Amino acid sequence: MDPLTQGALGAALPQSASSSKQVGSAALLGFLAGMAADLDVLIRSSEDPLLFLEYHRQFTHALVFIPIGGALCALVLHALLGRRRGLGFRETWLFCTLGYATHALLDACTTYGTMLLWPFSEQRFAWNTISIIDPLFTLPLLLAVVLAVRLKRPQIARLGLLWAVCYMGLGLVQRDAAEEMGRALAAERGHAPLRLEAKPSFANILVWKVVYETNDRFHVDAVRASLWPRVFPGDSVPKLDIDRDLPWLDRNSQQAQDIERFRWFSNGYIARDPIYTNRIMDIRYSLLPNDISPLWSIELQPDAGRRDHVRYRTHRDAEANSAATLWQMLTRR
């Protein structure tokens, strides 16, 4: 999730466990600790552009790391804030740990994938119930946090947590409805999907991206679940076949290894870009939910050395047009 949402949820939980006198301190410490796990984005390399993909949402997001993360936050924040606000270290540690504990679970509700069980498993949990940015989730939660501080009433923060749980529950219902629509669409086409996933489109839980896999292709469509259900047909693309798509690639090269690293990160949803043929796309994410144009990809160089890495690319073209089209999907009956 975005840092503001992580901080708001990180503030709400320790607020709910605080007294009226400590509600402001709990909010501040929980807000900062709730964002702290994303400091793993600093683990990156100028030589290896995929390194950050392996470490983002890894050990700092593991459930077993929560007490450690909370303690590290408390060690830093007690001297800066906790002691000045009259808190003992134990109270600072409690508020920081509660705030830190919300981070990974909230991230797992998104579509990116979070290694909750590291180091015992590298499975990336993605429950696909909310977009990484969703104002309808964040703003009421943030309002509850602010009002709890202003009025010194932890009960308001508890209402904010209740809103968060209810919204996630609604997202789960919407996800299941979108998956059912996706299965019905595949059946109409005579397809028997090997796997199918529905992911919320940007900033809402009404329009969903449906991706399903057949023997040789990935199919991408969008559906509007529940309110005036509607299908927005998309496109399909052949699954990556290295022998067919990249016959020049040395299988023992670093670029070949990077493809497998990218395949792991993308949960196998990779295909060659039909326009830029030396690019490999993660088709799970796009600006428009019925589009195969990716948000990120890797680019290979046929003349690269055996130890050269691929290049990592992000794509944010035509954002204004995409936003207008998504708004039409959301509002048009």
How would you briefly describe this protein structure?
With 333 residues, the chain is an alpha+beta fold. Helix content is 45%, strand content 14%. It has a 4-stranded antiparallel sheet with strand order 1-2-3-4.
Question: Explain this structure to me?
Answer:
- This is Metal-dependent hydrolase.
- GO terms for molecular function: hydrolase activity.
- Keywords: Hydrolase, Membrane, Transmembrane, Transmembrane helix.
- The chain crosses the membrane at residues 63-81, 93-113, 125-149, 156-173.
- By secondary structure, the chain is an alpha+beta fold.
- The chain has helices at 3-16, 23-36, 51-55, 66-82, 89-108, 135-151, 154-188, 242-245, 254-265, 319-331, and strands at 195-200, 207-213, 217-224, 230-238, 270-272, 279-282, 296-299, 311-314.
- It folds into two domains: 3-127, no CATH class; 173-333, no CATH class.
- The protein is built from ten helices and eight strands.
- Strand 1 (195-200) and strand 2 form a beta hairpin.
- Helix 1 packs across helix 7 (154-188) and helix 2 crosses helix 4.
- The model has no long low-confidence stretch (mean pLDDT 95).
